[in-house]
Design a protein that fits this description.
- With 251 residues, the protein is mainly α.
- It has 14 helices and 2 strands.
- It is elongated, with a radius of gyration of 22 Å.
Length: 251
């Protein structure tokens, strides 16, 4: 991907050239073509908006849900926990047709809101299941001590449990963001207007026309779309390790 993005078309389609080397020098023509002839920057913005909002929704739902299942005495609690996991196992290939009809009935096709509402169907169940396992490993004594000192359960969750569970929260954040960033099926089924597409669908539909693959711009777009995720992992990896250390100290 990296080599192809910076390789000229003459060398790119030369069957005698080494595919892993650039012989004729670096070129930025594929990046120029991508930025000037497509809606790449619009797709990039759409992906950021969808992935960020979906991540916030996932955290907002999965954290209280996982905490309630692991800490509160609820009727049918074990069945609820199993149901959360089974919901994650339902593949999107079975859901995109009924979800597409639902979005059409709501008038949300060709809008980013359709993706924002659909993506949590696969991010929330997994995030809830993951956090349930993490919360179970946190001693109840920590929050009970806070509640004895006068804190409410919500305050104990915010000030005591969540800081200890920071590695799990960061893992959920990475999972929700990256899965939303690269998801294809719902975005391909719900969005057809070029200016509303997200990166994976935009690159697939605009850079592949029939049996013609525009490999240079396609690889340039794939390289640029991979950078935000790589930077996110590089940035949060430090906090993930520090969160593990902090959690071990508090234990």
């Amino acid at each position: 991907m990296l080599v192809t993005a910076f390789k000229g078309n003459r060398e790119l389609y030369d069957l005698t050239a080494n595919p892993l080397l650039i012989r004729d020098g670096l070129t930025l023509e594929h990046f120029t073509s991508l930025l000037s002839n497509t809606f790449f920057l619009t797709w990039l913005r759409n992906s950021f908006v969808v992935s960020t909002v979906v991540t916030l929704i996932t955290l907002g739902i999965s954290v209280p849900a996982a905490y309630a299942v692991t800490r509160l005495r609820l009727p049918g609690q074990n069945g609820l926990a199993l149901g959360v996991f089974l919901a994650y196992l339902v593949p999107p290939t079975l859901l995109f047709i009924p979800l597409a009809r639902l979005m059409a009935s709501l008038g949300l096709l060709d809008t980013l809101l359709a993706l924002i509402l659909a993506y949590p169907t696969f991010t929330v169940p997994f995030a809830t299941w993951l956090l349930m396992g993490y919360f179970k490993g946190i001693p109840k004594d920590l929050e009970e001590a806070a509640m004895v000192d006068g804190a409410s359960r919500l305050r104990a969750l915010w000030a005591v449990v969540l800081p200890v569970a920071s590695p799990g929260l960061i893992t959920v954040t990475l999972f929700a963001f990256t899965l939303s960033w690269g998801h294809m099926i719902y975005a391909l089924a719900f969005i057809s207007q070029s200016t509303q597409k997200v990166l994976p669908v935009g690159l697939l539909t605009e850079m592949v026309r029939g049996d013609v693959f525009f490999w240079g711009p396609l690889m340039a777009g794939a390289l640029l779309s991979a950078l935000p995720v790589l930077l996110l992992f590089a940035f949060l990896n430090r906090y993930f390790v520090s969160g593990l250390t902090a959690g071990a100290t508090k234990y």
